[in-house]
Amino acid sequence: MPHTQVMEPQTDFARMADLMEKAAAHMKESGDEQTPGKLIQLADKTKRAELNIAFCGHFSAGKSTMINTLLGVKLLPSNPIPTSANVVKIRGGEKAARVYTKDTGVVTFDPDTEMEKLKQFAVDGDTVEWVEVQYPGTFLHEQASLLDTPGIDSTDAAHKIATESALHLADVVIYMMDYNHVQAEENFNFTKTLKDRGKPVYLVVNMIDKHIDFELDFDSYKESVEDAFETWNIHPDGIFYTSLAEPDHDENQYEEFQALLARLISNREELVVTSVRSAAEHLVDEHVQVLKNRNEEVRRELEGKLDEVQVEGLDSHDAEQVVRALQQAEAAAQALANRTADARKQMEKELGVLLDNARLTYFSTSEAAQSYLESRKPGFKAGILFAGKKTEEEKAKREEALLADLREKVAGNLDFHFKELMAKQPQAYELRDEAYHAAVHATSIALTGEFLASHIKDGAGSREYVMNYCNDLSNGIKLEYRRAGLAFIEQVVAKLEQQVKAENGQLQERLADLRKMAEVHQELTKLASKEQAAKEQLQAILQEGA
């Protein structure tokens, strides 16, 4: 069976570039004047699937000399001063030299006869944007370029800007250092920035011919270099030690370095795909930073408002704290608004349960009630002699017997519990009122003959009627206690309303301050959301063409 080779799908660089151009147009619509141009540059490079290997580092580290040596032709000046104020791009192909100026367009030169003139432009950081040289016969081809960047240690800020502005076009960074200046802090800061941006970074420690072996053996020196970068949590993709002055130096890794560049170029497409995607993402972040910078004044004004409002125990700049405090205060305000209604409902419920469960009539009550009712029937008489007087005495006796029974039952089964319940109601709401307490305990529901008589109905006589009569008496007594209880409840509610009013004033002040804070945080969130939405939209364009 013949072997079938599975071909990897080819990268559609044109499609990637098209999406970058769309994203750049979207950035430009938002008023960003800087980032869209970088993304267009990245798109142009992506169309050609061009690999850019950027040489960065100290101006004295020998970058230009290294590039000339690698190319086999002296295309770059190599003086002991920072010669390039611009990025110089060198690639393979037919001879050509171009200077891209800020005002007068592109100026072309003959790289064989006019290189000195070209080099003069290379040091002009004011009118020149970048310099490009195309030269045949080197290890480069039209889709592989070297970028010589200005020294990062230059005192000229424009040099640093030129270097940093070119990094989005670099697929691989070669960071060169002078043997004597490896542990300069700017080396660590710059290489860490590169690694944080996801760039492959290779370190070249040049001029190792300066090493004096009897002071420190070379292996120990190499270990000190690696430890220094490890301390900064920097993990380069490789470290090479080179000498151009002494090609035969025992520790010279120039040839290994040269071989690395060849491998990178042979792996061009894969490196470019990874690099441009990462660079595009970084440019999206740059664009979002532009939006943030534009919103900075508004953001500062809003944060200033947070400083103007102070709530005890709260960090006004902590949005989560503010939201929680506002929710708690609103819940407290709602509970406060409902306090009197809820209290009245609860007290009325407790009073109702007490009255419903209070038993006021027993068998003895029914017997006394039956005797009392019989004495109230028409024609009732007691005795033969002196019947009128004896009848009235018997009626009074039976009435008093029923009243005594009821008073006993009310005292033991209702009155005591009623006063205990009503007396504790203010305490449940942290209210103190001695007069109220005294009034509760002075409560007296009078049980009289008139009360008994008022509940007699026509047709009394049967045993069933006696039971109903006793129920009526019980309900009548409970009704009086209910009226007294509701009156006490109204007194408690009135006190509660005063308490609520006092608490509500302070709470409303707190609520007003918290709402101001919350509104400011909402505005800050809107700014952040717009910035995040812009980022997500650009990411969607780059990933899907949306």
UniProtKB/TrEMBL annotation:
Keyword Nucleotidyltransferase attributed: no
Keyword Iron-sulfur: no
Domain Dynamin N-terminal: 53-206
Coiled coil feature spans: 288-346, 486-544
Keyword annotations of the record: Coiled coil, GTP-binding, Hydrolase, Membrane, Nucleotide-binding
GO molecular function terms listed in the Swiss-Prot or TrEMBL record: GTP binding; GTPase activity
Chief place where the protein resides: membrane
PANTHER family (UniProt xref): SARCALUMENIN, TRANSMEMBRANE GTPASE FZO1
The name this protein goes by in its record: GTP-binding protein
Top-level taxonomy: Bacteria, Bacillati, Bacillota, Bacilli, Bacillales
